[in-house]
Amino acid sequence: HYAGVKEQNVTLGLPRLIEIVDARRIPSTPIMTIYLKPKYKKRKEAAIEIARKIIFTNLELIASLIYEDVIREEIVVELNKNMMEDRAITFDDLATKLNPPHASVIVKEDMVYVKPEKPEHMKKILGKLPSLPVKGVPDIKRVLVTEEHGEWIIRTDGSNLSNILEIDGVDTSRTTTNNVHEIATTLGIEAARNALANEAKSVLEDQGLDVDIRHVLLVSDMMTSTGTVQQIGRHGISGKKASVLARAAFEITVPNIVEAAVKGEHDPLAGVTENVIVGQSIPIGTGLVELYMSMFETKKKKEGKTEK
After folding, report:
1. Given 206, 222, 251, which residue is the final one in a domain?
2. Cβ-contact 8, 146 below 8 angstroms
3. What is the pLDDT of residues 88-135, one digit of tens each?
4. 53 — phi, psi (to 5°)?
5. Single pTM value for the model
6. DSSP 5
């Protein structure tokens, strides 16, 4: 495990902001912040115990050597005892977890023997054996146990929110990830909306930019208004505008205009962008009001007649 290692690869600044507004399916550096329940958050040993349950371990990580014994027609795995102790993996765990298809497994001392049902399956099993899961949550590559604000928390490289929330000792009300799509799938669209706002605000503040939270909330509202997380771009919000000219003004001009002409689309010029393009007043503020003035009657006594 990586408890106590004070380093973590995190994407910040403009690249992270682009990831957020583009609604990338998987961030370039997926990370999680895992908070613990009161029983575990005050003791480092308890936090490390949960971290060992979280970090993903496959057979390759705890094996010092994997080779093919042609004479006995079996695959032999020599185990690394130090790595097994570090990941808190027992021989019983191996006997339970290792179930390669079309083969039997025998764990003896610090060796694992995998006997294929048919000799011709040996090469295929040998290729799949290193990636067999032994312990932990898939996609969690590293864990970092650190103390912040008087409590121990776990930060991870890799993200798997749904599985992490099922682990005993994890505070499900505060644990979060920077993968917005995972949040939307696991906790719902409102949680994803809040996550978008928090992520964007955090990135801006890290760069020393003071942006009013209402601007950030407006963007997150637009990105989640349909019930799914969509990007701000030609494949998302901007590409779905009703106005032909507004779509054409964003990125790909000619294809948008040609497609609209082929389909016979009509542009009512109801938005800001399209009215700026054609040189009209935009329908906002004073441009939204149409004022009609009627000439009131003025009475003048002129030869006993009233003039209008």
Report:
1. 206
2. no
3. 888 887 878 888 777 888 888 788 888 888 878 888 888 888 888 888
4. -75, -25
5. 0.71
6. -
